[in-house]
Write a structure and sequence with these properties.
Length: 131
Amino acid sequence: MHGKKNELTNGSVMTGNKSGMEGSGTWLRRVEEENTSVADGSSWGYRSDDLIPEESDTVQKALKRLPPKEAYDRVFRLRRAFQLSLQHTILPKEEWTTTAQDRPYLSQLIEDIERENKERQELDAMVPNKK
């Protein structure tokens, strides 16, 4: 295995050695960084609120309250990420979602709806006092 080169999925090359562990720190850091960017979705252009599961009624109501432009942008990001996933690729580094771009847009609406639901339940549970 000494001197053998293995091409990684991202196109970089790893040189093999006798122990298999020499220089692995750098390689492991690269893999960890790549997996972190894929895991948080930034390399596919996701924003953090794009990853909130849509199955609950609360999230469905919040999605309906999104402004049209925000709803369009969300669908675009989801479709682009799906296409990239099918192609087994990621966006070019300059198109990754940055922390400045990754601002919440759905979380606040979800919190508002949950607060409204709680208030509605409290009002429904009230018992009027008869005099």
